[in-house]
Amino acid sequence: MVDLKEILTDIARAIVDHPDDVMVTEEENNGDVTLTLGVHADDMGMVIGRHGRIAKAIRSVMKAAAGTCGKKVNVEITD
Question: 4-78 adopts what CATH topology?
């Protein structure tokens, strides 16, 4: 089984300058998983990217990973 929280944590830690400040919380409700990603304030731009391209790519990868285990995932990014 795929650990979606771990996948998102690994992706976020790979692209930020402060990997120790990456926090991911997970809420599951009837097969729908909501992952909330929190990063250091200085790293917010790296996670979102220009015009939200990085955030969109992260969400796409997470949806593909969730699809392998039959779940739906929603990724929220907070500061």
Answer: GMP Synthetase; Chain A, domain 3 (3.30.300)
